[in-house]
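ZP: hey, is the adenosine-5'-diphosphate complex queued? I don't see it on the tracker
AM: it wasn't, my bad. submitting now with these inputs:
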Amino acid sequence: MNDEVIKVSSICKSYRDSSSSLEVLKNITFSVSSGEFLVIQGPSGAGKSTLLHILGGLDNPTMGNVYFQGADIYAIDENKRAALRNQKIGFVFQFFHLLPELSALENVLLPGILKSWWERKKSLSKALELLERLGLSSRLKHRPSALSGGEQQRVAIARALINHPQLLLCDEPTGNLDSENGKNILQLLIELNQSQKITIIMVTHDKDLACGAGRTMCLKDGLILHRATERAPAQQS
Ligand SMILES: Nc1ncnc2c1ncn2[C@@H]1O[C@H](COP(=O)(O)OP(=O)(O)O)[C@@H](O)[C@H]1O
Ligand SMILES: [Mg+2]
């Protein structure tokens, strides 16, 4: 059985303007199995966010393919790709990206807003269950501005989980938090990976942050450098 959730094959990404071209990702190939926690570490500007956006169907690679459960996500049209993102992939960002006018509960319900009445009813009980599990039962009606950074990130994680995604993509999820809250969020992600078997890919510039969370790869100069301790393809180690 193939339990590969995502596979990237020979990904390149360049940004061009009239006078120059910046090659951010150079021939990147790797895959992630169901239930894995992959940490992609690398210095600021290394292309981590660019790679994560490409993995999540948010930004086309210049070359190469991204396969989600075997299907090439850039070979389908934008509407189908948006539906796939909505239903199968959850995103967690450094700056939370919550809507300021909505309450915590409304933010979590947002990805299901276009669903049928019956599905929205199910989403409401799921949202309440998630917010309770993440320790936010007493914050349901609070707007983001009335929540701490750690609480806002937990709301963002609940929102990312509302549609039962098969893959959670996290871009520096602790990057805007103090170290205590950062540790708590990382612990929460590890727990979600272990108890719910959610596949997670997390990028971070912090070398020490995610030691031991799972498999670690390093992105540097547009290339993936595999750690000596993990299963690396022979030609790239
Ligand atoms: N839309 C864009 N246009 C031009 N250059 C970009 C764009 N997005 C990112 N870059 C450049 O690509 C490089 C990698 O950016 P990014 O993926 O955000 O890095 P990281 O997340 O590792 O800090 C940076 O040099 C950045 O300036
Ligand atoms: Mg980034």
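AM: back. The beta strands are 4-16, 21-33, 37-41, 63-68, 71-72, 89-92, 167-171, 199-204, 215-220, 223-226.
ZP: great, adding it to the tracker
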